[in-house]
Design goal:
This protein is an alpha+beta fold. It is built from four helices and six strands, in the order H-E-E-E-E-H-E-E-H-H. It has a six-stranded antiparallel sheet with strand order 1-2-3-4-6-5. The longest helix is centred in the C-terminal third of the chain and has 17 residues, at 88-104. The chain starts with a helix and ends with a helix. Pfam families: YjbR (PF04237). It comes from Chitinimonas prasina. This is MmcQ/YjbR family DNA-binding protein.
Length: 117
């Protein structure tokens, strides 16, 4: 996957919104909560960060090109050096899981306001 493929995939998830935070990061959120972050300018960085299930955190950070995400590792976020670090199917699955993990933590009222999965 490329930087643009990640953005297109994240935008396709029900109720996902994207915006620019901290002047340089493209952030994808659901219900106002982040589930994916990547540099808005791929010429500066091609890295992508997202939340993973607690039990997958150590497994994934042992792989080459994947490390704990700065500032967010304590919440089980990982950072890929590049979206190409993992195969497209694996990355899409992990991004979908990140979206679902964050969506599940929203209040019932917030979840009910979102389009169905």
């Amino acid at each position: 996957m490329t930087h643009d493929d990640v953005a297109t995939f994240c935008a396709s998830l029900p109720g996902a919104t994207g915006d620019i935070k901290w002047q340089v990061d493209q952030v994808w959120s659901v219900g106002g909560k982040m589930f994916c972050v990547q540099c808005a300018n791929p010429a500066l960085s091609t890295g992508v960060s997202f939340k993973v299930a607690d039990e997958r955190f150590l497994e994934l950070t042992d792989l080459p090109g994947i490390q704990p995400a700065p500032y967010l590792a304590r919440h089980h976020w990982i950072r890929l050096d590049s979206p190409a670090t993992l195969g497209a199917d694996v990355l899409q699955d992990l991004l979908r899981q990140s979206y679902c993990l964050v969506r599940a933590k929203l209040t019932k009222q917030q979840r009910n306001a979102l389009p169905p999965l």
